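Reopening closed ticket. The problem is back. First fold of the pair:
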Amino acid sequence: MNFLKKAELVNIVVSEIIYSAPANWTKIVYYTERLRDIEIGLRNKDIARCWLGSEKIPHNNSKGPPLRSSVELFDAVDELFIDSEKNKEIWSGFGVVINNNGKYTTNFYYQDTPLLDNKDEEYRARLEALAEMI
């Protein structure tokens, strides 16, 4: 994948995540999986965690998901995946952790789809590892 194109798409994804976040967020962890399926097309699933305020209180999911639904975010992640397919750099998972100082770190996963396969312990371990990055 062209490095500049990949960086541009990742920046769009990060911008869309921030745009979809609650007003007083301090840290966001976003993880998504994509898998090409011959019968049904592109399978996808995502999960997010968000911490609020200077005390970094975890978002209460009983009040709804931490990120508002965003077609632009899904489209940007799909474009990142499709571009990686074209360049034979096919990932199955993509995670990003962002803090409110503008710092972010990404991680691509190239095997297994624990979120799509409902393997709770495995995808939770990925989320925890991402959360520790920043």
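Second fold of the pair, where the issue appears:
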Amino acid sequence: MSSIILESKQDIQETKEFAAKDSKAFAQYQLQNVRCAGCVRSIENALKELSGVENAEVNLALSNCRVEYDSDRLSNNEIQNLLSQKGYSPQRLQSSNFSSLSFPDSSQESCNWKWALVGTLPLLVLAMGPMVNLQLPAFLDPSESPTAYVLAQWMLILPILWAGWDFYRNGFRSLLGGNPDMDTLVALGTGSALLWSFVSFTSILQGTSLSDAPLYLETAGVIITMILIGRYLEGKSRNKATIAIRELWLLQPSKAWLVQGEIEREVQSEILVKGDLIRLRPGDRVPADGLVKDGYSSLDESMMTGESFPIEKSIGDFIQAGTINQQGTLLVEVQKVGPDTALQQIIQNVIGAQNDKIPIARLVDQFSGHFVKFVLLIALLTCGTWYSLGASWPQILEHSIAVLVIACPCALGLATPVAILVATTTGARNGVLMRNASSLEWAAKAKIIALDKTGTLTYGKPQLHKMQTAPNITESEVLTLAASVENSSEHPLAQAIINAAKQRSLVLLKAEEFLAISGLSVQAKVQNQLIQLGSEKWLKESGLNVPENIKIPDQASTLVHVVRDGCWIGLLECQDELRTESKSFVKFAKRQGREIAILSGDRSKAVHSTALKLGVTNWEAGLSPLEKATKIQQWQDQKQLVLFVGDGMNDALSLTNADVGVTLRSGTGLALETSDAVLMKNDLRHLAGLLLLSRETIKNIKQNLFWAFGYNIFSIPLAAGAFSAWGINLNPEWAALAMALSSISVVSNAQRLKSFKIPKID
């Protein structure tokens, strides 16, 4: 993440307003025929050459791409025209409506391999029959009717070529465009076999015997069929990886019961608007975010938060789209619909994370982009080497074709994105929402876990414990003034003060000219009096004094001083309860070899007390938002990767500055916007899940890359005939099978991440 520290909330707002006025635009497209890492690099290079394109990212696992461009210099139509010319049939995805999202379709591959198999089986019988003394009909007997025998093979290869025509169309198009890909390797390998067979056929027509003019039609047929079957199986495996995204999208019900007066009618959920009343019956899935206006029930929120137990809901409670009403009937007022619901935000973040490449993936892409050219060079060297050794042309051809078809850029290209896809969707299903993929790698490597105290290590629901006031004012007056000011604040302490005022049935006054100095104080004018509330640090910096008879408590309370027109009038002592899982989380993180630090704006005694209870030795108190972010920067200057966890507006700077910023779902809007990951349940066990998932994901990616690189390093020399001296050879047909299985193995390994669950750390 960027190390630039924004000075204030105003700076952040100005940055957002500037971005809104900018001409920068984003577009996402679903693509067809994206087969391998070569395709990915070809598309990205072509898009980046367009004037106006600032960045382009292609995801092989989902077959889609995201383009960042200048709308003043380039139009969406121009981008789509380029992709169409390249043969990728783009379909633009609307970010506000993920029903337009499509997934890799294996139906065409299924049709293709079946057609190829129809030709391949009899072709094998015809070509291999004489070798195993299989009696063929007289009109197809190679010794009696060689011309008919060869023509029959050419007839049988036609449905195979039809099924695999995309190899030749896309492969040669990529080759002529200077970006050869996997299809190019298949087209050149099988094309060589077909060309040799055609030359042999012309010789046979001129009287040459079959033994002197060997055919390789069955080789070409088997290679095409095996690769088509492998591509179909790979597509099925990739589809399994997208199931979690499908499941998220299917959480949105298409129908809802709209209540209008005494009438209830079933309508399409997409027509709901804010303020509508809807009825939820037992078993109904919630169609929109809303507030319960009447009724009592329990909801299954497992797909949204990972919480396995039903959550009770009654009047005034907020419910989310996609959750399931288990029992009881609820009347709900719609608050958010469509893309504004929490469910659609989750889907949008999960999809967006797929087009963010982690650093290791960028390195792999750079290598894979040149991999096919490297294989072509190896095939030429294989041909030249065997020719110089005096090998026969059939032997030379077999080794060269084997090199072309055994190389597998697909395994390299899929190693990272398919693991990211499974990890992010599995995380979302367990209540851990990753907003970008690169955060997974940084979270796995983060050495320091820095946490805010209030609302993160504690429940963030402090209660007013005690009050002290100046002699000339009552507790009720101080509390009324304080609550009136805090009514405009989002800080957890504000809610504690407001709740205390409500419990005493105090009437809040109108506050004007509200101003928050993040992490230090808030102020507003109440009845033409300037009322200020702030910390001990703010009080000292302001030069204000506390009356001598006021005792500053020693216990771990959070103190809020109240000042009226420059004079101290009261002290509010608030206490917050430590989360039950906080201590367990600290132990878990330490077992992982991480260092825990507490960065808090609270008073020293309160932070020290919390640190002692948790066994944390690295803590700092009384920090302003800028000081928190500066501390994080100091760690980064020492080459330490930092993951910061916070939930308030005053944490936004630290969330932005950290390598990974994590927010609890209860966090404020600004904190949520600036974070890299969101814990959908306010539970530090989900943070432990994030740390564990990140390491498991990077481990899985390394396994995939080890296999993909290892496979190619071993198989290419084997196919080239490097072990022929020991009688070890690999014919092209087996090479094609090995290539198909290599991609399937990478995708299957990534599927293991789907079994991830939030760990028990107690």
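Update: turned out to be a display glitch only; the data is intact. The first strand starts at residue 24 and ends at 30. The chain is about 50% helix and 20% strand. Please close again.
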